[in-house]
Amino acid sequence: MNDLLVEVLRGDQVESRHVGSAVVADATGRVVFAAGDVEAPVFTRSTVKALLALPLVESGAADRLGLDDQALALACASHVGLAVHAEIAAGMLARAGRDVSCLECGAHWPTAREGQVALASRGEQPTALHNNCSGKHAGFVCLACDSGDAVQNYIRPEHPVMQRTTAALARATDTILDERNRAVDGCGIPTYAMGLRALATGFARFGSGAGLDGDTAEAARRLRHAVAAHPDLVAGPGRFDTVLMQEFGARAFSKMGAEGLQVIALPEHGLAIAVKCADGAARGAEAAAASLASRFLGEHDTLWRLSRPVLRNWTGTEVGALRPAI
Amino acid sequence: MNDLLVEVLRGDQVESRHVGSAVVADATGRVVFAAGDVEAPVFTRSTVKALLALPLVESGAADRLGLDDQALALACASHVGLAVHAEIAAGMLARAGRDVSCLECGAHWPTAREGQVALASRGEQPTALHNNCSGKHAGFVCLACDSGDAVQNYIRPEHPVMQRTTAALARATDTILDERNRAVDGCGIPTYAMGLRALATGFARFGSGAGLDGDTAEAARRLRHAVAAHPDLVAGPGRFDTVLMQEFGARAFSKMGAEGLQVIALPEHGLAIAVKCADGAARGAEAAAASLASRFLGEHDTLWRLSRPVLRNWTGTEVGALRPAI
Fold first, then answer.
1. What pLDDT sits at residue A299?
2. Which Pfam families match (chains A, B) (predicted)?
């Protein structure tokens, strides 16, 4: 049910292997490439942040609150917790008349070393603004405030904001999302399991607008362009999603998810790639997704580097590399 | 060739899976449990630090330089980079009349958050003393200085220190170690690939002394007892190896290795466990090894927690767990 996705080489010998599943699908759900079981349910985690952000734009809340492209990009982000990320999240909350105290995502240290050192050197502790999901959560708060809903418990499945964002995800992916395929994500909101093909279909639609209502398609276009204009906000310096979109701009909408997920929408092809590394490893999902992307975006230095990253030890010596196998 | 080792649950559904191989063997190489291919070569990485430390003790260098149990424990360690670890490594170097400048392992940030914050809050950068391998490297420097060998390039395969430590590893595991199964480890020294059964056999010998020369068996006993007396030095607070040995002392010698390796010697049983998680994930190797250990050490709260760790999100909510499958 899983195929070999990526081999990890030390010297010229295989040290570790990542298996999983991968699919490329169009907006109708047609599969143009598949490896492994692409119908088995996988929790979609942070891959779907942009789909969950559709109601924020489509409802007009983003415009009424004056959220700019940076805010919209951060609403789709799993950011690395630099000062710029925390500041934009705080600004979104301020637009809704709120502050960090209403965020229900919990606090964690920035994932970027630079962000960790910046906080620690000032003797500060991280706040919920540094949580990689703070932009998504700030967007939820904005949506609640714009609609006049109570903000508290906005992460619970029965809250109107979760109902609306879940409905947007269900429509985009043509899946039934309920308590049977629901669990709790790292940031406290519900995460739903669906087949990898359904996930790719949702992003083929998000990338091209095909199969979406007119207003939803326009919201998707705005979110895509916001992220393409600010790829540094959707992750951070040197991170896969940021590097890919710094290179390809609006030609590739790339988003990781915890436990080995990677989605790349390819708007000009009307397709999207979705990868699940069965063991949950980001490196496996990234290399496999970059390798698949090169079939559509063409051979390219950036895709080569992302699909075959060199492994170096602490003195900088090259000790191995990843090698895609799909 | 790989068996299912561990499932990762989100809610009550399987989100990710770790496959690999696992073996329990005695000092003669007899297999009492096997899952997956236990003869396929795997790079042994940091699992073998204690075997590489045998010449330091057996040669008398440790005694001549006055290395205490803390130093011997750190020579076997993949530590988390707290101040205590860096200080002991510096002390070992001082015993040899050297300092951090001769270490060839490279510098990296402490893996423990507490260590990172401590450095950053003082505006400091990590040095080679914070490298998780600094104790092993300091031991190599001690061995070189005691023998009158030039210290420079002590990490290279042809250096007398690497020749002696590699020979100790080859003897303990009955394997031929040469350029055909050699690659470069994260800290710059050679790492060699061997079957998981050979690795377990080496640690069954290390744990019991059976199959080792008298001087080697005595050196192994001293290293085991040094680590058992200072389990906080071999890794760090909350880490698998430290927690296991804080609970079981000299009844279990536990050592992780990069890319999903875990070894646990069980001296009173004359056995050792070796696990390779095929994808390189520590969590998979740890849960599988703890589960296997409970077959010999008995059902025990600590082993239960280590084999079935609960996954919590950033607000502390329980969102899943690991579940051993072997």
1. 84
2. Asparaginase_II
Interface membership of B317 toward A (CB under 8 Å): yes
* Angle at CA of residue B260, ends B259 and B266, nearest 5°: 130
pLDDT of residue A292: 98
A 100-119 near B (Cβ less than 8 A): 104-109, 113, 116-117, 119
A201 and A26 Cβ atoms separated by less than 8 Å = yes
Amino acid at B27: A
Task: Show Cβ contacts of residue B323 under 8 Å, excluding neighbours closer than 6 positions.
Answer: B6, B7, B8, B9, B287, B308
User: How many other C-beta atoms can be found within 10 angstroms of the C-beta atom of residue A231?
Assistant: 24
Q: Please list every residue in chain A whose beta carbon sits closer than 8 Å to the beta carbon of residue B277.
A: 279
Shortest CA distance to B254 belongs to which of B296, B216, B210?
A: B296
Check whether B37 has a pLDDT greater than 90.
yes
**Phi, psi torsion values for A231, nearest 5 degrees:** -65, -20
What value, to the nearest 5°, has the Cα angle with vertex B199 and ends A312 and B105?
Answer: 30
Choose the closest CB to A17 out of B106, B116, B278: B278
Number of Cα atoms under 13 Å in the Cβ half of residue B18? 34
Q: Let me know the angle formed at the C-alpha of A161 by A157 and A164, rounded to the nearest 5 degrees.
A: 90
Lookup result for tokens 């040669």: B59
The tens digit of pLDDT for each residue in B104-151 reads: 999 999 999 999 999 999 999 999 999 999 999 999 999 999 999 999
**Domain extents in chain B:** 3-324
Distance CA A44, CA A224 (A): 19
Name the helix (H) or strand (E) containing A299: none
Answer whether residue B239 shows pLDDT above 90: yes
d(CA B81, CA B113): 9
Inspect the interface and report whether the beta carbons of A106 and B315 lie closer than 8 Å.
yes
- Give the model confidence (pLDDT) of A254-301 as tens digits: 999 999 999 999 999 999 999 999 999 999 999 999 999 999 999 899
Q: Decide if the complex's ipTM is over 0.90.
A: yes
A191-222 core/surface letters (b: 16 or more CB in 10 A; e: else): bbbbbbbbbbbbbbbbbbbebbeeebbebbbb
CATH classification code of A3-324: 3.40.710
Which residue out of B15, B37, B122, B152 would a mutagenesis test of the A interface target, given it has the greatest number of A Cβ atoms within 10 Å? B15
Q: Across the strands, what pairs with A87? A: none
According to DSSP, residue A125 is labeled: P
